[in-house]
Amino acid sequence: MEISYSIERTRNRSSSAVITGEGVLIRLAGRLSAREEERHIAILLKRMAKRYASHRSAPSIDPFRSALSGSGAFSISFGDGATRMFDVTEGSKTSAKMKGGIWMVRRSPNMNNECFRKFLWRLLSISEQPRIETLVHGINERTFRVRVSLVRLRHMVSRFGSCSRGGRIALNTALLFVPPILLESVIIHELAHVLHPNHSRAFWGAVTNVMPEYKEHRKALRRYRLGGG
CA-CA 20 to 30 A from 59: which of 45, 65, 92, 174? Predict the structure, then answer.
């Protein structure tokens, strides 16, 4: 199978690869010669081939697909059984407001499906942000108790979560649609990065110390494919 890939040059000590919505993103280590870059790319593509094939056959997390064809009310169901309602009508411009727990959405006839899907993902991120913040701080309190300066819920196409310096954590809104234990495992992964901003032995030790079954959860997450938008 031919794999579509893109390259990102980093200052990291080692090269790595992740699956994205468009293919594989290869993050090359810093200070590599042209020949070394070619070798790293070839090795990573070979290593990712089986995982990529499995990824392409996995179900896509794309809850808004059926809502793109027309107007009307619809609901989406999360991994924990909760639901969120939307009511879409046509309007002169695209806008939305929350009313009685329902997102009342007006869609401009000039907005294409890709942009409208992204718009719906943003609305979902806004409405679920408070409970995700509460969840992250609750898990942090019973595990690492690190300093978390920001929790942000947003839709991403290449990763389930990230952690930047200063304890700023981002979680993929798509995680709302997986079993709660898998969402918790991603949160624990990102909280551990506040302590260890790498994937060192110390990092994995910290993760497995609070969630011994983490490897099984990580494998289960790979069965999901991040969808459109």
Answer: 45
